[in-house]
């Protein structure tokens, strides 16, 4: 026979069980409330950070919120101004170093901006999609120059402009590197190789807020139309292997006009052959 339990004992055990269940239920409810509160706080913090980033200005004094309200055409026109300014400034720096011929990079990609987040100077919140910068490079053969004296002279000149100048020496490659950041966000690097006796000058524009993907697509489409129209900086002395050509200081490919597509019909492309 099973032992009988008195009603008093059964009531006591039932009450204890109910108390334990209610305590557990309250604990679960309290935990859920704590998680909900934590998620709300995090959301508010992230929202606040996002709003702050949207109000951060780039080196042109433009915020991400400003850019998001701009049309693509207006962003394109701003990019054109910034591209021209970089190359004009670059030409001035080239001339200070040497007013002789330089060699271009051989690339047609200089006209297309790079992602702003790739640079440590980018404003907080910059990504590969919402920011961009332009870059340009040229080479100068300096067989008749003492590169050490030339680098020292350039460093002195850049410092006189009030730029933040730094110099690095690499013994492994027998090369020196001079960098400078201007007060308005332009970055320059002058590198020399004592083996080849060549100088490479590179510059980056400031990082700007902008729809980089849409801008890159628009520029590439118009670059194709620009090439088809012959409005390029084509030259007969371009090297077939390196694709490089001789350029005067400050000479660069013009930025394609926004309206160039109005009279352009792309050449039809060959359709891929069907699978056999």
What does this structure look like?
By secondary structure, this protein is an alpha+beta fold. It has a domain at 71-256: Sirohaem synthase, central domain (Double Stranded RNA Binding Domain), CATH 3.30.160.110. The chain contains five helices and ten strands, in the order H-H-H-E-E-E-E-H-E-E-E-E-E-H-E. A seven-stranded antiparallel β-sheet has the order 5-6-7-8-4-1-10, covered by helices on one side. A three-stranded antiparallel β-sheet has the order 2-3-9, with no helix packed on it. Helix 3 (72-97) packs across helix 5. The longest helix is centred in the first third of the chain and has 48 residues, at 7-54.
Q: Radius of gyration from the CA trace?
A: 31 Å
What is the element string, with H for helices and E for strands? HHHEEEEHEEEEEHE
Name given to the CATH architecture of the domain at 71-256 = 2-Layer Sandwich
Major sheet description:
7 strands, antiparallel
If you average the pLDDT, what whole number results?
80
Tell me what portion of residues adopts beta-strand conformation: 15-25%
């Amino acid at each position: 026979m099973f032992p009988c339990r008195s009603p008093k004992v059964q009531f006591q055990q039932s009450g204890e069980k109910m108390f334990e269940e209610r305590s557990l239920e309250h604990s679960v409810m309290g935990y859920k409330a704590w998680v909900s509160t934590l998620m709300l706080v995090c959301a508010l913090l992230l929202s606040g950070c996002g709003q702050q980033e949207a109000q951060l200005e780039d080196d042109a004094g433009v915020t991400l919120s400003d850019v998001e309200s701009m049309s693509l055409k207006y962003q394109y026109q701003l990019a054109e101004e910034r591209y021209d300014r970089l190359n004009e400034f670059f030409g001035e720096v080239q001339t200070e170093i040497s007013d002789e011929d330089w060699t271009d990079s051989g690339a047609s990609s200089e006209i297309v901006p790079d992602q702003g987040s790739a640079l440590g100077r980018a404003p907080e919140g910059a990504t590969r999609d919402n920011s961009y910068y332009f870059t340009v490079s040229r080479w100068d053969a300096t067989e008749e120059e003492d590169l050490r004296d030339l680098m020292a002279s350039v460093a002195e000149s850049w410092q006189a402009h009030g730029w933040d100048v730094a110099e690095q020496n690499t013994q492994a490659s027998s090369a020196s590197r001079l960098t400078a950041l201007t007060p308005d966000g332009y970055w320059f690097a002058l590198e020399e190789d004592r083996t080849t006796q060549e100088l490479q000058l590179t510059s980056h524009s400031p990082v700007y807020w902008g729809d980089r993907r849409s801008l890159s697509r628009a520029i590439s489409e118009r670059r194709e139309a620009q090439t088809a129209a012959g409005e390029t900086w084509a030259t007969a002395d371009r090297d077939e292997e390196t694709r490089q050509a001789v350029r005067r200081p400050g000479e660069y490919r013009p930025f394609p006009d926004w309206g160039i597509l109005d009279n352009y019909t792309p050449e039809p492309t060959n359709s891929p052959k069907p699978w056999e």
